[in-house]
Amino acid sequence: MGRLTRPHLVEAAIWLAIVVIFFAFSFEFNQPIEIYIFGATAWPRVIIILLLVAAVGNLFYQYKHGSATQEGRVGVAVSDDGADFGDPATRNKMIAVLVVPFLFAWLLKPVGIYFAAPFFIAAIIWLFGEHRLRPILIMTAVIYVIFLGLFLVVLNAPLPQGNTSPFYGYSAWILKMNTKLQGLW
Hints:
- The chain has helices at residues 6-25, 42-65, 88-111, 113-127, 133-154, 165-183.
- The protein is mainly α.
- The protein has 2 domains: 1-68, no CATH class; 85-185, no CATH class.
- α4 packs antiparallel against α5.
- The longest helix is centred in the first third of the chain and has 24 residues, at 42-65.
- It is globular and about 60 Å long.
């Protein structure tokens, strides 16, 4: 099987399972939209197809080249030994990086994305190794402002607002500020 190893196949299987699950769930909101000929599932399915292409492309690359270190690749050391998953700290960090997005998604309905997003962004930055408070706060603010600008101003896309008292109020305030901002144009 070329240079494929068991971890390569497990990774490919996980990505392909994600693609299949997301595609299956896309039928739950497959409804026509009056102003968009392709319906509500068009863009999510485009992203799912791109994810499928990336997973298959990665598997093909690993089949041809294996896990060999590539010359000139940024972020790869010549003597890259990989992570030591026998170390409990490394294993816990990996589990946390995998669990935090699921926790974020679970909290979207009661809390809403407008309130939960900054905490998610800060948690991911912290888990990826930045532990200084000032850079975490600055980057969280920058990413959050870009996120709000993209989804509220550019795309004008509705996002989950939450349904619990103080969080819903914060989301309503953000949307009111967006309406006032767009009224200035």
